[in-house]
Amino acid sequence: MSAHNLESAIAWLAEQRGAMQTALADLVDIDSNSHDKAGTDRVADAMRGWLLADDIEATHHADPAEGDVLLARLPGIDASQAPVVLMGHRDTVFPTGTVLQRPWRVEGDRGYGPGVSDMKSGLVLQCFVLMALRRMAPLPFPVLGLFTADEEIGSQRGRVAIEAHARGARAAFNAEPGRVSGNLVTSRKGGANFVVDVTGRAAHAGMNHADGASAIETLARKIQALHALTDYDAGITANVGLVSGGMSSNTVAPSAQGKLDVRFCTLEQRETLFARIREIVAEPGVPGTEATVTQTSEFLPLEPKWSEELLTRYQASAAQIGFAVEGEFTGGCSDAGFTASLGIPTLCGVGPVGAKAHTDQEYCCLDTLVPRAQALLGTIAGLA
User: Fold this and answer.
1) Can you tell me the distance from the alpha carbon of 259 to that of 79, in angstroms, rounded to the nearest whole number?
2) Which letter, b or e, does each residue of 245-282 get, where b requires 16 or more Cβ atoms within 10 Å of its Cβ?
3) What domains are there in the chain, each with its CATH number?
4) Is the pTM of this model over 0.85?
5) Using one digit for the tens of pLDDT, what is the confidence trace for 305-349?
6) How far apart are CA 288 and CA 201, in angstroms?
7) Cα 341 to chain centroid, rounded
């Protein structure tokens, strides 16, 4: 691939600021809460429209539950070569109707609106990178756009799609927002949610207390043991953030439930932590009570070893464009952990810079739309 080939595609991107901003406004003004399938599918339809208009193959794979998967594909010279995967999620945390209350707006060099940085600006960036790649001679390998719709609620369907389509890829780039520092994300915690259910035996708390078996007491003991798994130095946290149970204050509780969130930094930690959770729940509690644990969701970690080489390549590409960038750790989870845990070199946070995600002050730095797209384009081209 000639340098001129890449330079002309980078020059094309340099002229796309207005088009990228218009595209971002279009996506922000679509309500797309994770449970709003019609909304997440409308986002897919808008993206598919842009790609098809640019002669890029884009297919809408229906899912009856939480939202469809949008797949875009640029063929390489050799279709058997492992692809590069460009990832993003189309859902937001904001309830349907939010767009009516606070639609897209621009103040200075910032764009505002629900999901503007997390991660509709990243979706726009990925589409324009695909368009720029189409303006170059084909790379030796295919490039796959993989856009899911349930990341904000745990990626249960998204993980299936990612593991099906990305397995064996040569690299994956997840366009979560760039950090407010401008940095990429090169390391993320994994996380999981569990439900601990305890059954006991009801009794009148005054007349025959001894006949009861308190599920709440057993749960309380287990919460203490679960919280003791927290190890800040190792980056492990355990938090029972929701509890419920009992019938009334004068009844020994026949049932109780706790919802547990755990975070970890490595797959090795995950195995040890999950085993300890199962052990704690299985340990005897108040006689007459029984506890079970059910895992309800999980994100896998992005370990630094899977991002180091791509970071170096991205830094070289960014330097050519004219900005410096470092890698950064975050305790938050993302789909990048699924590709990294498949052994795929993975970079996260390659989207435009943004901040205050999941709040009504969320914003995107619009002047980063073009340079971040150009840097990613150069990184992908360099893999050839």
Assistant:
1) 46
2) bbeeeeebbbbbbbebebbbbbeebbeebbebbeebbe
3) 3-188+301-382 (3.40.630.10), 190-299 (3.30.70.360)
4) yes
5) 999 999 999 999 999 999 999 999 998 899 999 999 999 999 999
6) 7
7) 14
